[in-house]
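Support request, priority: normal
Reporter: lab tech (M.K.)
Component: structure prediction queue

Hi team, I submitted a job for Oxidoreductase-like protein from Rubrobacter xylanophilus yesterday, and the status page still shows it as pending. I've pasted the exact input below so you can check whether something in the sequence is tripping the parser. The sequence length should be 396 residues. Please let me know if I need to resubmit or if it's stuck on your end.
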Amino acid sequence: MRREIGVAVIGMGWMGQVHSRGYRRLFHHYPECPLRPRLVVAADAVGERARQSAELLGFEGWTADWREAVEHPEVEAVSIATPNYLHREIAVAAARAGKHIWLEKPCGRVPEETYEIARAVEEAGVRSTVGLMYRHVPVVEHARELIASGALGEITHYRGYFLADYAADPHGALTWRYKLDGAGLGVLGDIMPHTVDMAQNLLGPIESVLAQKETFIKERPEVPEGMGTGHFVVEGGEMGAVENEDYVGCLVRFASGARGTLENSRVCVGPHVRNAFEVNGTEGALAWDFQRLNELELYRFDGTGERGYKTVYAAPKMGDFERFQPGAGISMGYDDLKVTEAYRFLTSIYEGRQKEPGMAEIVSAMRVVEAMDRSCRSGGWEAVGQGVPSERGAGA
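Reply from support: The job had stalled in the queue. We restarted it manually and it finished. Here are the results:
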């Protein structure tokens, strides 16, 4: 008989609602899941948002105090979808309370906060899942298999980039995302973890980096704290300083010997969410862009003398595609990836076995981010540290 597991979702903005819908849709796509999520409590500092979310999404209760959700005796698993400055406090408290955690990246404002969460999770022996969901795209999983099988030969080149325009309007509100005490890092924390994790997921560890960063929009209009849950424009108003970076570009050396570039921007006019990679080997190449989520561009020497990429569409037998769609050409979407994430989170708990991506994978990505941050200051190549520092503030 399938066991119920009590769930709390903390932070009921867009991402918290995506998590909640992921739990609700779970059995539509994974009917064999051994745990049935029971939505016990929705938590948000804005009480009215917590109340409305609980009503609309089917939670049994709500609270404006995240501590009540963490301490609730019927809650075994906690989704944390709050702003970055709350990640460490909530995640550490949840782990110490024996709760399993599903946490959005970057798991804190700076790498050290990620390491603190990882130590708490390890000490508590709870399971963790981190929102690095682009790994779960079926054609990305197919790409990983091709690379691992040697189908592209020896990998020599990698280009990973996440170019976005969500902050391209200089009248975009100066929310927590642009402040050191709210977000900590800028794009280094917001989207570089995705780019780094994808690179390491496909090619293995990055061992050294040479990076630069820039803040192109240096002021934005001030808004009251807590206003809005996303990105929005404000006309007029007092201007305040942007405290973190808009752009990062980086050269990387992989332990395998491959060389690459990683680039992130939140103010790049043109692309909307161009989260993409290109891989080149001695016998072939491939490329993927999130804006065409269900398509993989593949080039292979086939002996015909014809040169060029072909489009490979997501199809059954690629990752979990057939859980969502019956045939090639019928597209999956962003929220589907969160359903897969919910499934992997709950099966990890049931099996008592940590699955990827958890805290180990985000720690690995943040070690690279940490090295990039050092390189931006030093102007030189920086080695990537390994593991989690045992003491607060320990260097790489």
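The first strand starts at residue 3 and ends at 10. Confidence is low (pLDDT under 50) at residues 391-396. Let us know if anything else looks off. Ticket resolved.
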